[in-house]
Amino acid sequence: QLANFHKKSNDYKLSLDYSQKAYDYASFNENLKGKSLALFSQGTTYFELNKINDALDAFTKSSEFLSSLNPSSELALCYYNIGLCHMETEDYTKAESNFEKARSIYDKLKIDASELLNLQKAILYKSKGKIDLARKLLYEIIVKPDIKDVFKTKAEALYQLGTIEERYNKNNLAINYLNRALLLNKVDNN
Fold this sequence. Notes:
elongated, mainly alpha, 0% strand
């Protein structure tokens, strides 16, 4: 909790120190879940600092510990974050594989994270040049009622569609999507 507190106040050094203390304490007490959560906290801090390799290492170790326990939302989120790290390093095959692992766990737990995972998959497709596949997934997200946008993915989907349309010189459509994304972000931040 102290690591997360310091992360929110942008004191990343203290955040990492407290994550390490939590890991040491959990190791001393042979608390596997505690060790994995401390590593997850380290991973998120490293990711925010754009230290992607360190984040990937922490998330991977965390997932190894969590894999020996019952499937959990923490494990699914860990795989999701591993996927994000691989996207940052442009290893899209590994990213997609980890997003599918996360989806599988969410499905087992009966947690609907499809919009969040579909958004990342669409960004992957966009990066690979598979624009039609990306558009299809992004359209599926933006047609959902706002009330069902649990992970706040609609604004990002609108932004991604705007950048796609801008690339193809459909500027009016691009502006429309980008304005809708901006308005949705203003509503979510108030």
